Structure prediction request, 361 residues.
Amino acid sequence: MTKKINFQIFKNYICTLLIFGIQLSFVNCYAQGGGVGINSNGNAADNSAMLDVSATNQGMRIPRVALTSTTSSAPITNPANSLLVYDSATAGDVTPGFYYWDGTASKWIRFSTGSGSGWSTSGNAGTDTSINFIGTTDAQSWVMKTDNTERMKISKNGNIGIGTANPASSAILDVSSTTKGQLLPRMTTSERSAIASPVQGLHIFNIDCNVDEYYTGSCWVSMGKSLRAPGPITGTTVFCAGASGSYSVPAVTGADSYIWSVPSGANITSGQGGTSINVTMGDYSGSVCVNANNSCETSLTTCIAVTVNPAPATPGNITGPTTVARSSPPVSYSVGAVSGASTYNWVVPNGASITSGAGTT
Prediction:
């Protein structure tokens, strides 16, 4: 019984050696000159390689670990600088892929995949502005350089600096230079006037007038050879509805024309474009305003307040006798007071006369 068992053990041992030998016949290890070669063709390791692995139908599998974050070495304790792993987990800011440990930065660095988050220097297609961008994901500034010299910086707070590494915190754009200036868009007056829906504060250089201009929200104003606003407006300031009046200003040096505006309901009957106008008022108070104008700019506005008293309501029924004998004693008539009325105009039949109370109720 004992011999049979020993024979069986010996038989199993022989089988194991045969299987191991067969495996070694397919994969061979060679060490020469300090390098180790792993292959199936018997070639020694290249002299420049400490480890030389070659195959035509197999790869080399890197250890798989489940990283938790690029800034945490876990689950590896004290990883050596340049340690290579394949992350098998999605956690924190890591996703499956190859990483190596940067001992100087104390963080895992992901190998570039050649696609996905990479940007091509010859252009990119299929980008999604909701997820694709150039910049930082942490609270760090973003720098652009040429010739290894910083040219522009976007600070972590969004301030942009050109020519300065420290853009002012109160400026959204801080441009600094001791040898160069800032060049605004240059355009003719007609090109400027053709700008669709100019925003308040828009700034250009007018090459017809050789002057900087900005848009106030209603007109373009020069920042250099400023066209003076018209002087005080003279004219009536209190009207009855429907009444007419005139307004005028002294001529402004350099002005080619004048732009007048009047309250709602009023009408400029003559003089628009000149230094004086005639106006028929409507029912509303407001302001009469004027700007001086030339081909380069429009001046600031000068205004005068105008009050329009509305027409009073029609008086109510007249109280008094409706039949009167010829040569009868004087009779009286009256109406209720009308709001806003200052006087009343009575009219009587031919041959009759108002003996008292004219202009009253």
The first strand starts at residue 28 and ends at 32. The domain at 234-309 is CATH 2.60.40.10 (Immunoglobulin-like). Confidence is low (pLDDT under 50) at residues 1-27. The radius of gyration is 48 Å.
